[in-house]
Amino acid sequence: MKKPTIKDVAKLAEVSFKTVSRVVNNEESVSEQVRARVQEAIKKLNYQPNHTARLMRKAPFSLAFVYDNPNSHYVIQMQNGIISQCRAKGFELVIHPTDSKSEEVGKELAAMIGSKQIGGVILTPPLSENRELLTYLLNHDAKVVRILSGAEAPDALAPVVYVDDIDAGEKMTQYLLQQGHQQIAFLGYHPAHESSKGRLRGYQLAHDNANISVDRNLIIDGEFTFESGMQMTKRLLAQPKLPTAIFACNDEIAAGAVFMCRLQGYKIPEDISIVGFENSPFSLQTWPPLTTVNQPNVEIAARAAAMVIDMMQDDKNHTVESCGFQLDLVLRDSVCAPNNTPD
Amino acid sequence: MKKPTIKDVAKLAEVSFKTVSRVVNNEESVSEQVRARVQEAIKKLNYQPNHTARLMRKAPFSLAFVYDNPNSHYVIQMQNGIISQCRAKGFELVIHPTDSKSEEVGKELAAMIGSKQIGGVILTPPLSENRELLTYLLNHDAKVVRILSGAEAPDALAPVVYVDDIDAGEKMTQYLLQQGHQQIAFLGYHPAHESSKGRLRGYQLAHDNANISVDRNLIIDGEFTFESGMQMTKRLLAQPKLPTAIFACNDEIAAGAVFMCRLQGYKIPEDISIVGFENSPFSLQTWPPLTTVNQPNVEIAARAAAMVIDMMQDDKNHTVESCGFQLDLVLRDSVCAPNNTPD
DNA sequence: TTTTATCTTGTCAACGTTGTCAAATTGAAT
DNA sequence: ATTCAATTTGACAACGTTGACAAGATAAAA
Fold first, then answer.
1. pLDDT, position A343
2. pLDDT for A215-251, tens place per residue?
3. Cβ pair A52:B83 closer than 8 A
4. Cβ–Cβ contact B94 with A under 8 A
5. Rounded distance in angstroms from the CA atom of residue A315 to the C1' atom of nucleotide D4
6. Considering just the CA atoms, what is the radius of gyration of chain B in Å?
7. Which of A16, A176, B287, B335 would disulfide-bridge B273, Cβ 3.0–4.6 Å?
8. What are the φ/ψ torsions at residue A37 (nearest 5 degrees)?
9. What pLDDT does residue B52 have?
């Protein structure tokens, strides 16, 4: 049994197929009588308009989510946020994992956009930080929205959803300072990682505001992984002056820190308070559960999707405003006031 | 500047647009001269064939990945496996997260398949376990491939990619037995979780083969989470007879077990060996890294995708064979021979 | 040279929808 | 009744591509 087309419905309802089209698209000028008859026919035949054929006549109805990120949870959250918008507004999502280090990303994306009738693109870090890629895409007249976070104010080439890492880093550090911590280590600064820069900047800012000077020895460089978290913590704990709290640049590092501290016999949070960043599942994959910063990725992605869709639908090319997200702390049990001042 | 169509290319190359189509589709009967001229024109105009219009004439070129799974890493791996096949074979992937508990899943999926010209569907647990959904989809003549794992032999309604949990559970248990463990606890049996049944079955089998009877008290029910892992381990450790090894039903449980053991002062693996299942990032999110079972999700998904594509392309409806995957152990440092026999 | 076979190219319809515009119908006002 | 406007409906082209088939060009055989 073939899939019914609009013409089959028309025949059954004894109207022209154009009228069926009108009913399907909820257009005004159809009498109630006819509308009812057509709707009945639609139901009887179980007719579904052909998305593909539709696309050919109308403006593009697809947007692409381009990413190159090893963090599954992040990607899925993004995806979900975008899909929610797509479903609400009848758009199609094309996911496009790629390799940000490849020379060909630009071409590859342009090709995809061209062939798949894609109207808009959402870029996440680190792809969204690639200025060349962005201009390349803009030159191939794609509508682009970038999701960015970090210390640099984003340029104005295209609308951005900006995550305020500086503010969040500051809030978290402030919180630790308020708890009475004065020796706060910072784990996981990485020059290639924009977010880490922002978070460190906030850390610094909070110290400045409190008139407390930062001990450079407490800032340790490393990767955003559990393994690296353990290594960094080991190095940290080998130093003469012990911190009373650790601000880890993400939850995985924090989990590694928790582990290493325990291995060396420190109690968490009694001996050392530890906080993470991201509110990922990893923040609950340790004990006690980590105080962390919530990144509302689903909302962020939904916002970005709404923006691209807006840009696609808007003919007159009115500029879509960038927007910023402030992050909130998630207080759990990995922090307490410092009891013993380490010597 | 408008997107160039096949006709623009034709005009530039001074041939009919049909000839361009032939060049684009790499058909035989085009003279080298003309082909070169057309290709040049294509390059000059940066022409990309319109995927959408193509779809309208040809057989469906899209397949859907339907899932309802809280495990981001799993979903991403699946997605990647499927995408690899789609790219290789020029297919389009539509991802469709859904709610398996909803009454409407079937209708929802049928609607999606109908409207988006989807030729095939890949189902993962728990959706793939839903017989009703499957028959519903088959009745709406969709091509379906299911990814399944567990203790039940899958029915023959549609081709299946089957993950042999029983065998894997048996292998892992055998390994622990070979290390000299006799008191092996099993954490995370859950009646609603097919995989856990299979793994437990394998655990039982290995004991049977070794002529060792299983102590029912060592089998603890629970969820597939870190939190539950901690709880179960707490219960386990409260029992008079301590195990020398713990077989956790997945890595998160195992990580929880590691944590709880440590909290109670047991050393891993010296006092208690612990193994997980899945080889997820969580298995490295603890210390020591977990011995676990590798689930080659990317390959599994790629296989499933290849199968659906096969079914879609094959007109004569030849039956695609189901296939099974055997899993392999990943030996890391969370296991050693039991030193002290607990009393 | 003519015929035939083969290879290359072109013409046109079709896919399922929406946009444009004209035709038919309705209803109100004269 | 007649006219006019407003509403409802329909005919047809168009979107960018591929498939079926016909036409033209070329090469080989007569």
1. 42
2. 999 999 999 999 999 999 999 999 999 999 999 999 9
3. no
4. yes
5. 37
6. 26
7. B335
8. -60, -45
9. 83
Model confidence over B289-337: pLDDT tens digits?
A: 999 999 999 999 999 999 998 888 765 556 788 899 999 999 999 999 9
Chain A and chain B share a number of CB contacts under 8 A equal to 98
The mean of the pLDDT values for chain B is 91
On chain B, the residues whose CB falls within 8 A of the CB of A3 are 114
C-alpha distances in Å from residue B58, one per residue of A51, A55, B54, B115, B296 = 14, 15, 6, 16, 33
Which residues of chain A lie closer than 8 angstroms to B77, CB-CB?
A: 72
Task: Give the tens place of pLDDT for each residue, B51-89.
Answer: 888 888 777 778 999 999 999 999 999 999 999 999 888
For chain A, which domains are there? Answer: 6-49 (1.10.260.40), 57-164+297-328 (3.40.50.2300), 166-294 (3.40.50.2300)
> Could you tell me where the beta strands, DSSP code E, fall in A98-229?
118-123, 143-149, 160-163, 184-189, 219-221
A55 shares contact with chain B (CB less than 8 Å):
yes
Give Dmax (Cα) for chain B. Answer: 90
Mean pLDDT of A2-21: 90
Q: Which nucleotide is nearest to A29 (CA to C1')?
A: D8
- Measured CA angle at B203 (ends B178, B322), to 5 deg: 115
User: Of B271, B270, B269, whose CA–CA distance to B291 is shortest?
Assistant: B269
Query: Which residue do the tokens 């007879």 mark?
Result: B241
List bases, strand C, within 7 Å of protein CB.
7-12, 14-20
Query: Of B165, B155, B164, B94, nearest to B128 (Cα)?
Result: B155
Mean of per-residue pLDDT scores for chain A: 91
pLDDT of residue B151: 73
Of the residues A42, A65, A76, the best mutation for testing chain B's interface (the one with the most B CB atoms within 10 Å of its CB) is: A76
The total number of residues written for chain B in this structure: 343
Percentage of chain A lying above the pLDDT 70 cut: 97
Residue A275 clears pLDDT 90, i.e. is over it = yes
- Strand blocks (E) in chain B: 62-67, 92-97, 118-123, 143-149, 160-163, 184-189, 219-221, 245-248, 273-275, 292-294, 323-325, 328-330
Rg (CA), chain A: 26
Say yes or no to pLDDT of B248 above 70.
Answer: yes
Tell whether A298 is within 8 A of chain B (Cβ): no
Chain A residues lying within 8 Å of B93, measured CB to CB: 95
